[in-house]
Specification:
Blueprint (H helix, E strand, L loop, with lengths): L8 E10 L2 E11 L4 E5 L6 H8 L7 E6 L2 E2 L4 H6 L2 E3 L11 H12 L4 H11 L15 H13 L5 E5 L7 H16 L3 E5 L3 H7 L2 E6 L2 E6 L1 H4 L7 H27 L1
Parallel strand pairs: 3-8, 3-9, 6-7, 7-8
Antiparallel strand pairs: 1-2, 1-4, 4-5, 9-10
Helix pairs in contact: 3-4, 3-5
């Protein structure tokens, strides 16, 4: 009998507060090898905080986080050195060209055949005519391609992607989706945040829907549906809409009690 694999991501009672504001309520997370796990939620739901905690960019206010067996709070640099990250709304350095930035990342990651590998990713993302253009002069979509290439270049065991398909045209959305699926077949594991529900449904084995820093539901898409006819969009609107109604009702109760 095959023993169950140890989780690559393990968070217990993970939470984040800023003063009195609770950005993320306590929750538990496990991601196992070969999974694509999705995190969905409206703007301001806590998705980026979630990702930043798991990647060592933020320290939790409570709880314990292990990434690839590394304590994310004690050694965030080691965590970052062993994963791939595409943060939300972050661009490559303005005054480097795509080639310069990817060569810098490849050196940090210890990529073999550095120049050849960088050239392959420049070609893969269709950036040949922009290879020597400063990143500040690239379009949003082109900058996103450079960020994706920097995360993919060393084919990490574990990838964290926060809105990776933002600003990409449908051709490159599909191309990246196919690469991610192939990467998982070859032993990779992915934690994904996306507003593109159709893409998330196609990619993810499991997912969680959050709002107001709380997990509303988690599991497979099939398991979260009330009927076979429901789409992921229907599930999302049902859960998030109810969550917003609960918050508004709670606020009205507080207002009434103050009168």
């Amino acid at each position: 009998m095959t023993e169950p694999s140890l989780p690559l991501v393990k968070a217990k009672d993970m939470a984040k507060k800023y003063g009195d504001f609770i950005a993320l309520h306590p929750l538990n997370v496990e991601v196992h090898p070969g999974e694509i796990v999705g995190l969905l939620g409206p703007n301001g739901a806590g998705k980026s905080t979630f990702i930043k905690l798991l990647t060592g960019q933020l320290r939790p206010s409570k709880g314990h986080i292990e990434i690839l067996g590394i304590d994310a709070a004690d050694d965030p640099q080691k965590v970052k050195a062993n994963i791939g990250i595409v943060p939300e709304s972050e661009s490559p350095p303005s005054f480097l060209t795509p080639v310069e930035f990817l060569e810098f990342v490849a050196r940090l990651r210890g990529v073999e055949h550095l120049q050849q590998t960088v050239a392959e990713w420049i070609t893969w993302f269709g950036l040949e005519d922009k290879r020597d253009t400063m990143c500040k002069d690239l379009s949003k979509g082109q900058r996103q391609k450079v960020m994706l290439a920097s995360a993919f270049i060393h084919k990490p065991k574990l990838l964290f992607l926060d809105e990776p398909f933002a600003n990409l045209d449908p051709i490159y959305q599909r191309k990246c989706r196919e690469w991610l699926l192939e990467h998982v077949k070859n032993g990779g594991t992915i934690f994904l945040c996306s507003h593109i529900l159709e893409m998330a449904e196609r990619l993810c084995n499991r997912m969680a829907i959050i709002n107001d820093g709380k997990v509303l539901a988690a599991g497979t898409v099939k398991g979260m549906k009330l009927t076979p006819e429901e789409t992921l969009e229907d599930v999302f609107i049902r859960l998030v809409g109810k969550s917003i109604e609960d918050v508004e009702r709670s606020q009205e109760t507080c207002d009434d009690s103050e009168e």
